[in-house]
């Protein structure tokens, strides 16, 4: 995995290479990458200097003109499909619309689709690209913090089902990721903090030093410091890339990236994939629950969940079930939703638990009673 600074016609950026053999690609991180998108994407194109971009209305309003100009500077034309923003767009209807639109645009096997937006667009457009003509290449241009640190890297693409989160999808690696940290400047505070949920997750699952860095630099990041944001994106991507390279299709270790997600996905399904709970918010709440469960099982110290919760709260993120507005189902119903989790093996739930901050592992040996009691207490705390 190389990690280099470059300064040429492509601008100044840092690279995390994801060495996956014939599916290897760069994640380029820096300012002004949208303005220079054409120069970065041009080497991927054949004779046809055109890309089809899938995006959504919030991002289109703020950044699509810049992308059009950035592509035009390298002589690349762009057609764009603008979908509604929000988690509910990760559904069959929008997938069908996207695939039919790509076919109308006569996208060929050798063309490149561009996913321009947050994790919703990355997951949806990546899945559309994976099934179009049995697979065309796609470039991720992630515009949210969450998408830059997590969803644009690693090739998990897909949509939600009423039965559960991300249950329909495919592994399809991008050909290139351009993470333009200047785009983060237009995020709402809520969306920025949602992305922080995944950032803190990396520290908790595998790097205590990064967790400590976040304890010290969280406020700087939130205040918009570009160097701090760039470092957080780069360190997160490095960690994700390392895990993905070890286990691309989640046969083992990759499940570590799911820390907090068994709880999170059940809560997202329970709140109807709505604005009541954003994915990164669910991840933060899920991580706090996973550490609490680990402590109750005697796997980690009692101090670890307190430190995790203190950091989540210090950054201003949602931390508890009581931070979710409106009704929630009871503990039994939440556990029933977990039964559709993709980590279920031989009918048994698997959880990511922790020995300490920065030392997590995957296990199937968690008694359901422990999970039910934990959830009952967390739900009672809402009363
Ligand atoms: N594939 C993976 O590995 C992976 C990893 C983590 C999360 N995910 C998925 O990602 C999704 C969440 O991603 P998300 O948090 O980016 O959600 P999102 O795509 O809905 O974006 C969050 C909000 O930010 C807005 N936005 C995006 N970029 C913006 C910008 N630059 N300026 C202003 N507003 C902007 C969007 O319009 C939206 O309202 C979930 O569906 C989750 O399951 C996937
Ligand atoms: O890339 C992964 O692997 C992850 O688990 C990253 C998660 O943050 C992400 O939310 C992912 O979409 C969850 O995957 P799923 O397979 O549990 O749906
Ligand atoms: Zn996630």
Automatic annotation (TrEMBL):
Superkingdom of the organism of origin: Bacteria
Keywords, comma-separated and alphabetical: Amino-acid biosynthesis, Aromatic amino acid biosynthesis, Cobalt, Cytoplasm, Lyase, Metal-binding, NAD, Nucleotide-binding, Zinc
EC numbers for this chain: 4.2.3.4
Binding, Zn(2+): 198, 261, 279
UniProt-listed SUPFAM superfamilies: Dehydroquinate synthase-like
Keyword Transcription regulation found: no
A GO CC term assigned to this protein in UniProt: cytoplasm
Subcellular location: Cytoplasm
Residues annotated as domain 3-dehydroquinate synthase N-terminal: 81-192
Domain 3-dehydroquinate synthase C-terminal intervals: 195-344
One Pfam family in the UniProt entry: DHQ_synthase
Catalytic reaction(s) noted: 7-phospho-2-dehydro-3-deoxy-D-arabino-heptonate = 3-dehydroquinate + phosphate
Cofactor or coenzyme needed: Co(2+); Zn(2+); NAD(+)
InterPro entries with a match to the protein in the record: Dehydroquinate_synthase, DHQ_synth_AroB, DHQ_synth_fam, DHQS/DOIS_N, DHQS_C
UniProt key word Cytoplasm: yes
GO molecular function: 3-dehydroquinate synthase activity; metal ion binding; nucleotide binding
Free-text remark on how the cofactor is bound: Binds 1 divalent metal cation per subunit. Can use either Co(2+) or Zn(2+).
Function: Catalyzes the conversion of 3-deoxy-D-arabino-heptulosonate 7-phosphate (DAHP) to dehydroquinate (DHQ).
Similarity comment: family membership: Belongs to the sugar phosphate cyclases superfamily. Dehydroquinate synthase family.
Protein's name in the database: 3-dehydroquinate synthase
Recorded name of the encoding gene: aroB
């Amino acid at each position: 995995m190389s990690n280099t600074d470059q300064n040429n016609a492509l601008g100044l950026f840092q690279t995390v290479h994801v060495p996956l053999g014939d599916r290897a690609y760069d994640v380029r991180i820096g300012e002004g990458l949208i303005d220079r998108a054409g120069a970065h994407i041009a080497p991927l194109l054949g004779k046809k200097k055109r890309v089809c971009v899938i995006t959504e209305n919030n991002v289109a309003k703020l950044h699509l003109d810049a992308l059009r100009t950035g592509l035009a500077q390298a002589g690349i034309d762009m057609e764009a499909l603008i979908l509604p923003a929000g988690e509910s767009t990760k559904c069959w209807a929008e997938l069908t619309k996207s695939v039919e639109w790509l076919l109308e645009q006569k996208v060929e096997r050798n063309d490149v689709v561009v996913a321009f937006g947050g994790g919703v667009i990355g997951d949806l457009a990546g899945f559309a690209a994976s099934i179009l003509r049995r697979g065309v290449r796609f470039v991720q241009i992630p515009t949210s913090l969450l998408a830059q640190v997590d969803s644009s890297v690693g090739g998990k693409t897909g949509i939600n089902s009423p039965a559960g989160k991300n249950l329909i999808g495919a592994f399809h690696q991008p050909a290139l990721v351009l993470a333009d940290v200047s785009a983060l400047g237009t995020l709402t505070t809520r969306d920025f903090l949602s992305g922080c949920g995944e950032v803190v997750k990396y520290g908790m699952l595998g790097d205590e030093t990064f967790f400590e860095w976040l304890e010290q630099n969280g406020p700087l990041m939130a205040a918009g410091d570009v160097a701090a944001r760039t470092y957080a994106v780069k360190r997160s991507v490095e960690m994700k890339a390392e895990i993905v390279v070890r286990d691309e299709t989640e046969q083992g270790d990759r499940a570590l990236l799911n820390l907090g997600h068994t709880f999170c996905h059940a809560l997202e399904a329970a709140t109807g994939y709505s604005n009541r709970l954003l994915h990164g918010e669910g991840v933060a709440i899920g991580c706090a629950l996973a550490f609490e469960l680990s402590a109750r099982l005697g796997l980690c110290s009692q101090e670890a969940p307190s430190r995790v919760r203190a950091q989540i709260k210090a950054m201003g993120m949602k931390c508890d079930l009581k931070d979710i507005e409106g009704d929630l189902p009871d503990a039994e119903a939440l556990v029933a939703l977990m039964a559709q989790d993709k980590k279920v093996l031989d009918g048994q739930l698997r959880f990511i638990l922790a020995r300490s901050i920065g030392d997590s592992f995957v296990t199937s040996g968690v008694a359901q009673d422990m999970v039910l009691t934990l959830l009952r207490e967390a739900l009672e705390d809402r009363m």
